[in-house]
Amino acid sequence: MSPSKKKKTVADAVDRQWTARVGPALLERLAEGAAVGSPREPLVVEVPFTGETLGSVPLGTPDDVVVAVGVARAAQKDWVAVPVNERAAILLRFHDLVIANAHEILDVIQLEGGKSRRNAFEEVLDAAITARYYAHVSASLLRPKLRQGALPLLTTTREYRRPKGVVAVISPWNYPFMLSIGDAIAALVAGNAVVIKPDSQTPFSVLWAAQVFAEAGLPKGVLQIVPGSGAVLGPALIDNADYLMFTGSTATGRLIAQQAAGRLIDYSMELGGKNPAIVLDDAPLGRRAAGTTLGISTVDGIAFSITSGSGQVCVSCERLYVQSGIYDTFVPALAEALKTLPIGPSLGWDVDVGSLSSTAQLEKVSAHVNDAVAKGAKVLAGGKPRPDLGPYFFEPTLLEGVTEEMDLCRAETFGPVCAVYRFDDVDEAIARVNDSEYGLNASVWSKDVGRAKQIAARIEAGTVGINDAYQATWASASPMGGFKQSGVGRRHGAPGLLRFTEAQTVAVERVVPISRLPFLDNERYAQVMSLAIKALRYIPGIK
Ligand code: NAD
After folding, report:
1. What confidence score (pLDDT) does residue 22 get?
2. 329 lies in the same domain as 460
């Protein structure tokens, strides 16, 4: 079959599945939810599976951002007065609606992002888990806390958590649903209004989230979506919002940080990575290499971490360090696993690996692999685009013999491509793992969990999975973010909520002023206070 005929067949199949399930009417309804004026140019969204047009949303302008932030600011005044428990109840309704309508958002995520349904489902899980978690812990995290006063009995002091006001969220295309609404959930429950600028390739997933939040009872104006170019809308957001949450590349993060410095607004950023995995001699090989179907499989786990989201995940594994004793068994098994993973365009559950998202991604991934091969790297699996499957498909790829002069040695590829290195000594492996400007995610694979934990303590990365690529760390209630050039601040857990608040301390002076006790001149005051401070040092319970 000729490639063009094959492409047509694939396009037809995807289109038939899509129309039968939801239909283009959903897209039109979602597009109407964008917070932009009229008329506006259309922002055309593509189906990466086929290269064809999915639909369009109105392209926002800087003026739209100014209006959206103004509306959000007005709505926030009422929203902050809503008791936290009521805000949390909206989160739980959002949770239920996302699970109940998962089929719809899975289709939207896949059609505008090109990933497999299995990987799209990660986004559904993350949004639901995040909503449930913050629904349950926000009241306690945001409750005023009694703090130790300056002098016992004479003062009472409380710490309050006030919302920042309007939080701007700038999100990427790779996990467009969870990397936008996940942060918005925490900001909203903390009493903020939120304006999201989704990536131009993937506005529909975010618009779907806003529609579901409206159904869940979120008041109008509190959450707004302005689709459009980052370079055009970014400055308007930074000039008007009170806090910025950015997920994207380190290069853009740096630019945004410089602009935010002009207004001294605070931000958190989740940026790029070049994530390593260490496979020790005693790693559990699992079913593919050892013929069993139970237990942890390092082969399957690493294959997943290379190919999830077609490698376009900030926490994907791109560097693999395998100890000599297991190398000759493990690496061929991994190469075989990568070669046999189901890959292709499908809205069903039958496929593990989807498409890259765009021409730019295909060109970058191909350039990295071609450069490495031209300079002597050996291809153990994959290595080529797959135009027979769709315009941007690229095979899961494992390379050996990668050296410093190759572009993919240190730079983030953001595709299903991993370089494998042999090591003997664990200290040497840890040094190589840490020899990177990035520090986002890492994993260690060993049957000896205690030893793996000791290694984790020496790895410079914000999350380290033991016998897990990234799901156990990511989906936990513990903070997630990057060391070094991989980010600033943390999402998830308590810090993921508290970053969207200002701490405000309110202290009440009682009985006498502590700055000048009555009937004491300055010298006597200093003597009395010195005695008091000395005594407090020994009173149990005083910190
Ligand atoms: P990108 O930085 O090009 O774009 C991300 C977002 O920023 C988009 O919405 C884009 O429109 C916007 N943007 C672009 N230029 C801007 C500007 N000048 N001002 C304001 N906004 C601007 O990144 P990308 O290529 O879309 O995403 C891939 C990168 O994101 C990778 O490096 C990846 O590692 C990183 N990422 C990190 C995480 C994480 O949690 N650490 C998650 C996903 C992606």
Report:
1. 65
2. yes
pLDDT tens column, 425-469: 999 999 999 999 999 999 999 999 999 999 999 999 999 999 999
Which positions are catalytic?
Answer: 270, 314
Residue 249 in contact with ligand 1 by CB distance below 6 A: yes
User: Which of 458, 485, 512 is the last residue in one of the domains?
Assistant: 485
Tens of pLDDT, residue by residue over 334-368, are 999 999 999 999 999 999 999 999 999 999 999 99
Q: Which atom of ligand 1 is nearest to the CA of 197?
A: 9
Q: Is 397 in the pocket of ligand 1 (CB under 6 A)?
A: no
The answer to whether residue 541 sits within a structural domain is: no
For the chain, what is the domain count? 2
Domain with 282, as residue range(s), is 275-485
Residue 66 · residue 240 · CB < 8 Å: yes
Q: What's the pTM?
A: 0.95
423 in Cβ contact with 432 (< 8 Å):
yes
The DSSP-derived string for 1-16 is --HHHHHHHHHHHHHH
Three-state SS at 458: coil
What's CA 219's distance to the chain center, in Å? 26
User: How many angstroms separate the CA atoms of 326 and 285, rounded?
Assistant: 9
Q: What is the CATH number of the domain that holds 229?
A: 3.40.605.10
How far is ligand 1, taken at its centre, from the CA of residue 164, in Å? 23
Tell which atom from ligand 1 comes closest to the C-alpha of 253.
2
Helix (H) or strand (E) holding 252, with range, is helix 250-263
How many C-beta atoms lie closer than 10 Å to residue 145's C-beta? 13
